[in-house]
Amino acid sequence: MVSSVWAALELSLTCISALSLISPAWFQTATFSFGVLTYCSWPQSDRWNQSCGTFGSLDDIPDFAWKVSAAFLLGGWLLLAFNAIFFLSWALVPKGFCPGRGSGKMLSVQAAAATTTIVGLLVFPISLASPFAKEACGASSVYCRGQCQLGWGYVTAILSAVLASLLIVIRRPGMTQVRGPTVLFSSDTEKIILVPEMSK
Q1: Residues 143-148: contacts with CB within 8 Å, 24+ apart?
Q2: Contact status, residue 87 vs residue 6, Cβ threshold 8 Å
Q3: What's the pLDDT tens digit per position in 141-166?
Q4: pLDDT tens track for 29-60
Q5: What are phi and psi of 131, to 5 degrees?
Q6: Rounded Cα gap, residues 102 and 104, in angstroms
Q7: Residue 119 has pLDDT above 90, yes or no
């Protein structure tokens, strides 16, 4: 049951992260919006008549900082997806078949995914100084959005990074186990009684 809950959380987080990556709504104006991998434009009076495009490869992305950010964000998403697949396999496979279930190595993958995503999110606003962003946002510069507004895609990416970090913290206490002799206190004799650990 616990494995199923973690698998559902990991899959949900991976889907939210993917949605934010393909969203063109990271920064937007009245007639244009762009994200890490996509951009859209529309007439002033008709927002429903959008024409959108994608950056097909890293070579198509207009700025070096943007490319670095895209690489980090895609790497973080791949690590999240890898982690979600393992948690899903642990939820579906019988308990005795997979003895290393919930091992600390998966926490390391989750931590790497969260760290990589956070680095990508911190690098992306540097690309606001690119000619592409200046054309869309007016007087934008490094960490200054100009006339653009912050869109839901960037906020969603930030929230998914925060949730990825929180899942590490929440999962950590379940991983710790106390090993060694059990110490019992006897009130009758006021002595400490050591009970040896029994192997199962």
Answers
A1: 145/27, 147/29, 148/27, 148/28, 148/29
A2: yes
A3: 888 888 888 889 999 999 999 988 88
A4: 888 888 888 888 888 777 677 788 888 888 88
A5: -60, -35
A6: 7
A7: yes
DSSP 12-65: HHHHHHHHHHH-S-SEE-SSEEE-SSEEEE--TT-TTS-EEEE--SGGGSS-HH
- Please compute the mean of the pLDDT values over residues 16-22 and round it to a whole number: 90
- Interatomic CA distance for residues 18 and 22, integer angstroms: 6
What proportion of the chain, given as a percentage, has pLDDT over 70? 78
CA distance 87 to 4: 8
CA angle 7-12-16, nearest 5°? 150
Q: Which two tokens stand for residue 179?
A: 């090993």
